[in-house]
Each structure stands twice: as C-alpha cells, then as structure tokens.
C-alpha cells in the first residue's frame, strides 16, 4: 500500500509540474525581459540582485507547490472544506509576482517582501498555539485522541481496547 501512495504522490507531483512549470517559467522570463528592456537605464547591482532573489523565490515557491501537491495526494486528504493544494507556496508565488511586476514601476514594492518573515512567524505561532491542523495532537492538553473516522474525538481507553481487539483478531487469523 505504501508503494501505491508513493505512485499517487509522484503522479500528483508530475501533474502539478506540468501545470505550474510553464506558468512560472513564462512569468519569470517575461519579468526579466521587461526588467532588461524597460528598465535598462536604471538597472543597478541592487536591481539585478533583487531580480535574482525574486526569481529564486519563485523557484522555491514552485518546489513547495509540487511538494504540497504530492503530500495532499499521498495522504488522500481531499474533502469539501480542504485548502487549495499549494498552500503557503501559492501565497509566496503570488507575493513574488506582485513584487516582480510592481518593482518595475516603483522600488517601494520591494518592501512587500517583509511580509514573508511575518507570515512565517504567524505560521509558527499557529503551529505552537494549536490553531492549525499540524498541531492537533502536538499541543493538545486534553486526554482525547482524534480518530480517523470523521475527526471525532474518542476516549484513549476505547482506542487502546480497539487496538487490542484488532491485534487479537490478526493473531487468530494467522493461527
């Protein structure tokens, strides 16, 4: 079964790559074209280094989008209220594209890059305070265990009894 999940994740990663690579490559090439053609007279070392940083950020976001697609496909977490696959990497890509094309008009758009560490700090805060799904069992102070069936909370004693019954059935099956 683990091999099937890996195949599903690889297929999702490939499908996401086929979707996002042409878009991200085209946006970056178009940005670099505009940066060289229209801002040729004001091209400085600062603008060149910021252009490289922005292209690097878009590549980082692309890699994150692929990994998130693979993770969501491998876990089978597809539901009505699920978040869009790509998550924060899509937000990073959107911010990067906004800064890329905004910086062609004004250098003040580079200040929007300060949102990246702020968003990262907020994500860490949510992780350790328990407001996100990633920390549901990590920082939970109650003694309830989350079941995989419809996200209902059950008593840990019932969960242990259920596990022991299942183990006993498996042992009887092999004897």
From TrEMBL:
Q: Where does the record place it?
A: Endoplasmic reticulum membrane
Please list every transmembrane segment annotated in the UniProt record, as residue ranges. Answer: 20-38, 44-62, 108-125
What membrane topology is annotated for this entry? Multi-pass membrane protein
Q: Which GO terms describe its cellular component?
A: endoplasmic reticulum membrane
Write down the Pfam families for this protein, in alphabetical order: TMEM208_SND2
Which portions of the chain have biased composition (kind: Basic residues)? 163-175
The record's region (Disordered) falls at 147-175
Q: What are the UniProt keywords, alphabetically?
A: Endoplasmic reticulum, Membrane, Transmembrane, Transmembrane helix
Q: Which PANTHER family match?
A: TRANSMEMBRANE PROTEIN 208
Its family?
Answer: Belongs to the TMEM208 family.
Q: What is this protein called?
A: Transmembrane protein 208
Native source organism of the sequence: Cyclotella cryptica
């Amino acid at each position: 079964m683990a091999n099937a999940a890996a195949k599903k994740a690889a297929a999702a990663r490939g499908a996401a790559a086929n979707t996002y690579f042409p878009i991200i490559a085209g946006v970056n090439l178009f940005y670099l074209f505009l940066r060289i053609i229209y801002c040729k007279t004001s091209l400085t070392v600062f603008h060149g280094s910021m252009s490289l940083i922005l292209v690097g950020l878009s590549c980082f976001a692309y890699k994150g989008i692929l990994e998130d697609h693979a993770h969501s496909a491998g876990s089978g977490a597809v539901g009505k209220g699920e978040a869009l696959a790509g998550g924060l990497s899509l937000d990073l890509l959107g911010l990067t594209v906004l800064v890329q094309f905004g910086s062609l008009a004004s250098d003040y758009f580079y200040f929007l890059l300060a949102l990246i560490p702020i968003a990262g700090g907020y994500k860490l805060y949510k992780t350790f305070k328990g407001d996100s799904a990633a920390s549901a069992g990590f920082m939970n102070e109650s003694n309830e265990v989350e079941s995989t069936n419809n996200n209902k909370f059950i008593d840990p004693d019932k969960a242990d009894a259920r596990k022991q019954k299942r183990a006993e059935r498996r042992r009887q099956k092999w004897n």
